[in-house]
Prior knowledge:
Radius of gyration: 20 Å
Mean pLDDT: 84
Oligomer: single chain
Shape: globular
Strand order of the largest sheet: 2-3-1-4
CATH superfamily: Ribosomal protein S6/Translation elongation factor EF1B
CATH topology: Alpha-Beta Plaits
Number of strands: 4
Amino acid sequence: MRHYENLVIVKPTLTAEEIQANIKAIEEVITSNGGEIAATDAMGMRKLAYPIEKNERGYYQVIYYSAAPSAIAEIERRFRINEELLRFVTIKYDTNREIKAWNQLVEKANKKAETPAPAAETPAAEATPEAATEEAPATEAAAE
């Protein structure tokens, strides 16, 4: 089993649920071909360097996994068939030095997945004062 990394860019026109369903389908393609997913890193919606199929943005997802070299051709074939993917790239980690770097990337992705992202907490914190100000007059009116 060799170590690989796949970066996939999903179309931004999909809803959040559809994007997550596509990511799950991509992970299923890897596992169904004998791959073992070590970690995933959701990089989120980002601006593309150049428009792809008239899309200026894309949802980036990195998947770190181990698989047999013979499975990569089938995994990439299935990625090409998926019309929801704008681009993908497969990176093979071969030498001991590269494998050490792959392990560090996996650890970093796992730590990132365990800790909540500060950007995700910010909108919730901003929404709380608005909700409190809207509910406060209703609560005072109900008390009277």
